Amino acid sequence: MTHMNSNEQRSTEEQWIESHPYMQKVAKFQRIVRGVFDGLSASPVAMPRWESYSVDYETGVPLLLSQVAGLDFTNSASDSLAAAVDRLRESPLPEQLTEHLQNLREFIFDSEDNRRQAIEWLVTGTPENFSFPDVGLLRFLGWESIARSLRPVLAEYAGRRDEDSWMRGYCPACGAQPVLSQLSGDPNARQRRLACGCCRSTWQFRRIGCPFCANENSDRLGILVVEEEPFLRLDFCRDCSGYLKTYTQSGDEEFFLSDWSTLYLDVLARQQGLQRKGVSLYEI
Ligand SMILES: [Zn+2]
Ligand SMILES: [Zn+2]
Q1: Domain limits at 113?
Q2: Which of 105, 112, 64, 55 is closest to 85 using CA atoms?
Q3: What is the pTM (predicted TM-score) of this model?
Q4: I want to staple 212 with a disulfide (CB 3.0 to 4.6 A). Which of 46, 151, 191, 242 is the partner?
Q5: Are residues 88 and 189 in the same domain?
Q6: Could you tell me the CATH number of the domain that includes residue 174?
Q7: Is the dihedral of CA 54, 139, 119, 143 positive or negative?
Q8: Within a domain: residue 139?
Q9: Is residue 51 part of a domain?
Q10: Quick one: DSSP state of residue 231?
Q11: What is the pLDDT of residues 8-43, one digit of tens each?
């Protein structure tokens, strides 16, 4: 089954690149990174204390930021990051990335503390004095490491959540603001899921409403139809100018809810004066 899915996904990706040739570069980079991480075995992360965490969950504390959940992924993710950076050295990366990779390499191999702090900083924003000037590639590879290390934990967490029990405008796992959404189900009773660009969790949200500023006035919410993209549109808010890249079908979630496949929509959004609220891992 897994095998079939990956074939299917590859063909969606291939078709997509064929019709969007300007996505070729990012797709190639994505494939290289995916290959490197697929070849690593992240050390397992112990499950959090679900019982203790449930109080934090009720009050809106994301799992990764909960003190009482006792989730410790820093070692696993920072080891993956180091191993990935090491292996990427031998990969045919676009030229402009080699310098970034070299900077990152020097930084994370300088000390174990550096890479642990880097992972913690990506998730919590602390230590505040964390200083590494070249954060673009760190953000991209760091989140890939975190998401991979936490995959079994996040899958278990998703299975434990009641669909309508979070309904907040930020990720229940890592707390990041969403970048994508999906509308699915019966046209008369469509449901919206939001998708996190960092840890890739998805969660249910109100069908009508802005996750960034809580505006629920439909006159103040807009839809930007994207010509030639029957499955994609931009849902935006006139109050805060935030937007979500929205996938309006079902079946290819894994592909269309991955930020990279629709990066050109962010360019379009910016041209329309909209602001991306969710972190981008692609400012490299
Ligand atoms: Zn997240
Ligand atoms: Zn808003």
Answers
A1: 22-152
A2: 105
A3: 0.93
A4: 242
A5: no
A6: 3.90.1670.10
A7: positive
A8: yes
A9: yes
A10: T
A11: 556 899 999 999 999 998 999 999 999 999 999 878
